[in-house]
Amino acid sequence: MINKICFITTLFFSLSFSQDYLWPVKAKKEITAVFGEERPGRYHTGVDVRTFGETGYHLVAIDDGYIARIRTSSKGYGKTIYLQLHDGNTAVYAHLDHFTPKVDNLVHALHEEYGKYTIDHKIDPEDYPVKKGDLIGYSGDTGGVSGPHLHFEIRDGNGQPVNPFQYSLDLEDKLPPEAESIAVIPLDENAIINGFSEQKIFPLQKLNNNEYVLADTIFASGNIGIAIKALDKITGQHFNFGIYSINLLLDAQFIYSMQYNKIDWGNASKIYTERSYSLAREGFGKYYHLFSHHDNQQLPFINSKSRSGFVFDQKVLHDAIIDINDFAGNTTEIRVFFVSDTLPYFDYSTIFLDNKCTITFNKDDKVRPQFYLTEPISTDQLNPADYFDMGNNIFVVENINPPFNVLQISGKNSYGISSSPTFHMKPNEDFRNITGKFKIKHYESGIFVSFEENIFSGLDAFLSLKKDGILYSHKLFRNSKLTLSSGLLSPSDLENVTDLKVYYESSTPYEIFNMELSGEIIYPDSSFQIELLDGKILISGEAHTFYDTTFIWGRPVKTSLPKEGQIVAGPYFLEPYLIPFNNEIQINMAIDPNLSTRNLGIYFYNQKNFEWNYLPSHISADSSFVNTSILSGEIFAVIEENTPPQLSNFIPNINGTYYSSDLEHISFNVLDSFSGLEGETDVIVKLDDNPVVFEFNSYQNKVRYPLKYNLKKGTHSLYVQASDKVGNRSVLKGDFFIK
Known about the structure:
By secondary structure, the chain is mainly beta.
């Protein structure tokens, strides 16, 4: 089977190999990231070469060519060299600490010429020719980095990034990829997975280094997609890496194939058609889709004949084989079996009396019952229950006592397949201790409204939606011991809904929970302007912000307070949270106009790290709103911050005295831990009242200006001003002396 899959891969993907290139850095061959890995909203377009937390490693020309372009910036790629190679490709070296002296002199001259640090300059071919192995610069930590390393790319003749490992930048690798789990994803409103219509994760069982299986058969019906969570290991490397190639066969039929050899710059917006956005946002990790989604077959790394899922509509057994390959040719195979059917269902009734329960199954069912006792709270401990077989499909369970007073019932049919568990307890209509919370999960396939109990009620319930003054009811199904969930709802089901309520079905229907809802429908082919939460939030966007019709809503939430400043509007949770945006949405948050002169900004709340992060914000002309652009549903708030940046570690010190030969540069650290600062645009440095073009290293929070000549003896003035992104300002000025 592996040979068949490899044949398919070879058939649809062709590689063009060049002569061997040198390793780009004079350091041990270790990497921290590979081509095609996921980054927020984009793909990683190169390999990251490890420099072990240090800067200054020698960077060499991987082949003959010339330096065609140089860039410097305090963001992005930082200091960057573009090396045009004789074969038509371009090698890109990013995050450099500095260039060679000749190139450094050119860069300093360009900074003075343009009057700014951020430059992007093309160079004539004859100006800076290089030979294979020549020194071209030194590794660093400039630009947007989380630590020192070399980001290295190969771009083809059209300027598009290609996998550097195609060009013999090889590493010894005898380790196959590793698989953790698969996710089965419903792709339409009729899809059911093991009795439920929500996506479901299944852990894999490792047989050996190259083979994994799913121990249980999955029951599925409708249009289904598969996703896989996997990673790659490389011999002698200390990190986990993204996958190079994945293929899927179902019943020996080709379904899907991808191979990361090339990525076009325009592919960034498509990443969440190929990776599962919702699973990552729910905290399950990174999953690769094994189905084409939103017509993404045009992506250069996806086989153009890949299919949009698979419809399970016949009661037969299906055999799925997932083949994962790394660039060295190591292969891992995963085998999964599906049945095109629903899980077994058994019809039975329960009667509780004291600490016993009598369970009567339908006489026509051939069932082997399974009885467990568990607690009514959020624990997963299951104890096998004592029971008696009374004959005629009647069973009696005894010793149902607190705290294990919830009875879990399931059954196995004649094929040994278990039904979904159900939960029961002695009827109790004392609702005083029962509370809970709503969750609305908006996937691309539709919306689920669930109610999570704090303690097991033992009762059926229904969801009531108030729309235009009319109440609409939807039965809730118990997905787990404490979770009651609606079936799949369409966005139109929530259109104009103002209230959601949960009622328990008892002798007297009891309203247990109520939630107000403020939302609107967005249609994919229309632009929109929407007011939410009685005008507290205004949002607008262009057509095709979403692929499908989408419900967008906002609600007040509670979060931890910001470590600096205070919240003046919000926090509000703007959802959907589980669907990626294709285009930016403009969000305006209402404020008291009297606050508009203060240092305000919109921040989003990182729910993983429990911290607030600034978004580039502006106050409206009428002082009534603060606005920004967003690319995802998040918790937002307007925060007033009044803490100025911190300035420290000055060379030279104010009132200090120095020999001119000892003072080679002006440098200092500037740190703003909340809203942050841009560096070049937010910092001003003047030497003897003359502005200077300095370098800002955002990783080190350091400003540095190399002196181009020895300062004359006498008194010199230094002025430094740093402003954070909301306008807080620090100023240092004074004199120092040269002797």
